[in-house]
């Protein structure tokens, strides 16, 4: 970044501006997730540089008609004014100048594909967690300028296979390094891979999966392969895929169909490519959100004749399974991983406690101290979010429908309110209920200027984003996954990830916690696949308590932790087996 150096000549006490003869090279943004554009005002008499953040909010009342949807990925041509370039170069100005950065309208190749109305209505009938994209989102891990849709590319891996569709297969080496780093923080999966690799408990299993495609998920997929399974995979969220990781999986022979920034049509196309393939039929399903299960039910119901079971991770997907079971339409056994202890108490709580701050910091650069935040829902996700924000000095309010969770919030020191009571004063609104229309257009209209709105639940139905697609409101993309929605009076609302899952769309999540969830998923698949006929009926089941305890025990050596063992006398007194399970199924941890 070029700088100006003020040197003082002591002989005649003259102050002169001196430019460096050879300005240093501009800082590369390829290794940085997002670098906000900066406007710089330079005074001819002052050597100081005064940065004015491009994301600073205008005063309420600014004319909204001048605002246009912008694309932060475009850069000025060489020789042009770079005072506000995304690369952060600083140029000299004769006086204090404030310029509005102008970009061309967003034009993404995948948005050029016409959306099929039939599929749009289909997506709204299920979780909506990965559809209805209003704007594009470039992967911050992908510095490629190639805007060609992966569906239009002809790619092959080093083995000559083309049974995949990713952004760029050439990124495989970089993705492999990310997977190797993740393996170091996933001890249980690696231990499971080592212990069961010889037995191959998943030999003959053909698993079709629809989850977030990250380095952590890649470790799970490759572990399933090491245990004997054949896998085909798609993403459950259009924004959470790491392109380089998807490329690494494809290079390793996994049939993966996913890239960051898919359109709605792309999303369902990828799922269909995983399921509808000649000479290959799945016998196990691993789902996150219910989209894959829904697609097979609608398009290929005969496949369930050979499917042994479904493993579902999210609260949204589990809700759909219980609905199918109640209606008598669930034709295979299903394992509810979301409500297992190792998922609820670790992934939902500890993961969200750390990743909520990461997601908000990366997208808004805000300071949390003194900010007023309302968290909608005080389940495990809500508990994690509240604890993190409280520790950072935020003033946290909670909304809740369940009196038990509400009492927990009160005992933890949070004020229980209705959203209408605080919507005008809060700085941040976070939803984590798994419900729909928690934040309505009426709430959005009443928010103060600059309020940040985001979602930590799996489904994007919690915030009524659809109500904001109206002519009187202007959308301005200020950086990847950050939109300013501008009202006619100039008020701005900051919407993150278009109401989708914040942490996996805008940041990362702790690998160690995901190791717990991924190990639980792997054991659930092994249990359903190897269970003798008749053990599981056409219903929804929880993971056996013994397996929950086994997953936890695999992670204890990381902390050099040593469990106390019961004596025979103690075990007899408690009526327990010395090796567990140590708690009944109804026990609340």
TrEMBL record:
Residues 113-122 have a biased composition (Basic residues). Residues 1-25, 46-162 are annotated as: Disordered. Residues 11-24, 68-80 have a biased composition (Basic and acidic residues). Pathway: Amino-acid biosynthesis; L-homocysteine biosynthesis; L-homocysteine from S-adenosyl-L-homocysteine: step 1/1. GO terms for cellular component: cytosol. Residues 348-509 form the S-adenosyl-L-homocysteine hydrolase NAD binding domain. Binds 1 NAD(+) per subunit. Gene3D superfamilies: Adenosylhomocysteinase-like, NAD(P)-binding Rossmann-like Domain. Keywords: Hydrolase, NAD, One-carbon metabolism. The keyword Hydrolase applies. Its cofactor is NAD(+). Residues 123-142 have a biased composition (Low complexity). InterPro entries: Adenosylhomocyst_ase-like_sf, Adenosylhomocysteinase-like, Ado_hCys_hydrolase_NAD-bd, NAD(P)-bd_dom_sf, S-Ado-L-homoCys_hydrolase_CS. Its EC number is 3.13.2.1. The keyword Coiled coil does not apply. Transmembrane segments: none annotated. Pfam families: AdoHcyase, AdoHcyase_NAD. It catalyses: S-adenosyl-L-homocysteine + H2O = L-homocysteine + adenosine. PANTHER family: ADENOSYLHOMOCYSTEINASE, ADENOSYLHOMOCYSTEINASE 3. NCBIfam families: ahcY (TIGR00936), PRK05476.2-3 (NF004005). Belongs to the adenosylhomocysteinase family. This is Adenosylhomocysteinase. It comes from Xenopus laevis.
């Amino acid at each position: 970044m070029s700088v100006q150096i003020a040197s003082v000549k002591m002989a005649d006490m003259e102050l002169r501006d001196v430019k460096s003869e050879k300005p240093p090279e501009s800082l590369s943004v390829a290794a940085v997730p997002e670098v906000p554009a900066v406007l710089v005002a330079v005074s001819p008499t002052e050597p100081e540089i005064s940065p004015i953040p491009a994301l600073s909010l205008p005063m309420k009342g600014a004319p909204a008609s001048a605002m246009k949807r912008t694309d932060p990925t475009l850069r000025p041509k060489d020789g042009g004014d770079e005072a506000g370039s995304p690369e952060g170069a600083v140029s000299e100005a004769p006086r204090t100048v404030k310029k509005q950065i102008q970009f061309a309208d967003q034009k993404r190749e995948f948005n050029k594909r016409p959306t099929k109305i039939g599929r749009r209505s289909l997506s709204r009938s299920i979780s909506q967690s990965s559809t209805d994209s209003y704007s594009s989102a470039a992967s911050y891990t992908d510095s490629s300028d190639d805007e060609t849709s992966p569906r239009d590319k002809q790619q092959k891996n080093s083995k000559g296979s083309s049974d995949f569709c990713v952004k760029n297969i050439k990124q495989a080496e970089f993705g492999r390094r990310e997977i190797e780093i993740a393996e170091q923080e996933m001890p249980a999966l690696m231990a499971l891979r080592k212990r069961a690799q010889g037995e191959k408990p998943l030999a003959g299993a053909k698993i079709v999966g629809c989850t977030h495609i990250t380095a952590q998920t890649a470790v799970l997929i490759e572990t399933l392969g090491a245990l004997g399974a054949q896998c085909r995979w798609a993403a459950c969220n259009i924004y959470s895929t790491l392109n380089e990781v998807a490329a690494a999986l494809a290079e390793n022979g996994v049939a993966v169909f996913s890239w960051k920034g898919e359109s709605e049509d792309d999303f369902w196309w990828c799922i269909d490519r995983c399921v509808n393939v000649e000479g290959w039929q799945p016998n196990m399903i691993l789902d996150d959100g219910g989209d894959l299960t829904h697609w097979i039910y609608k398009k290929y119901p005969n496949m369930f004749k050979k499917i042994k079971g479904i493993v579902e991770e999210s609260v949204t997907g589990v809700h759909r399974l219980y609905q199918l079971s109640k209606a008598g339409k669930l034709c295979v056994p299903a394992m509810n991983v979301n409500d297992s202890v190792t998922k609820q108490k670790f992934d939902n709580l500890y993961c969200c406690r750390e990743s909520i701050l990461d997601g908000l910091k990366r997208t808004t650069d805000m300071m949390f101290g003194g900010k007023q935040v309302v968290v909608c829902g005080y389940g495990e996700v809500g508990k994690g979010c509240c604890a993190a924000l409280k520790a950072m000095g935020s003033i946290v309010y909670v909304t809740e429908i369940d009196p038990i969770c509400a009492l927990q919030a009160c005992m933890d020191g949070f004020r229980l309110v209705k959203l209408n009571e605080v919507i005008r004063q809060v700085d941040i609104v976070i939803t984590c209920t798994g419900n729909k229309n928690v934040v309505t257009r009426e709430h959005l209209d009443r928010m103060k200027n600059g309020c940040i709105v985001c979602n930590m639940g799996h489904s994007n139905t919690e915030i009524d984003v659809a109500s904001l697609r109206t002519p009187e409101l202007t959308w301005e993309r200020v950086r990847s996954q950050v939109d300013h929605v501008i009202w006619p009076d100039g008020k701005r609302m900051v919407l993150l990830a278009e109401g989708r899952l914040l942490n996996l769309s805008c940041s990362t999540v702790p690998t160690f916690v995901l190791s717990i969830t991924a190990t639980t998923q792997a054991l659930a698949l092994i249990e359903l696949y190897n269970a003798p006929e008749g053990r599981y009926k056409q219903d929804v089941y929880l993971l056996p308590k013994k397996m929950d305890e086994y997953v936890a025990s695999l992670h204890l050596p990381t902390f050099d932790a040593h469990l106390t063992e019961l004596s025979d006398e103690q075990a007899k007194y408690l009526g327990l087996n010395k090796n567990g399970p140590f708690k009944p199924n109804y026990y609340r941890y």
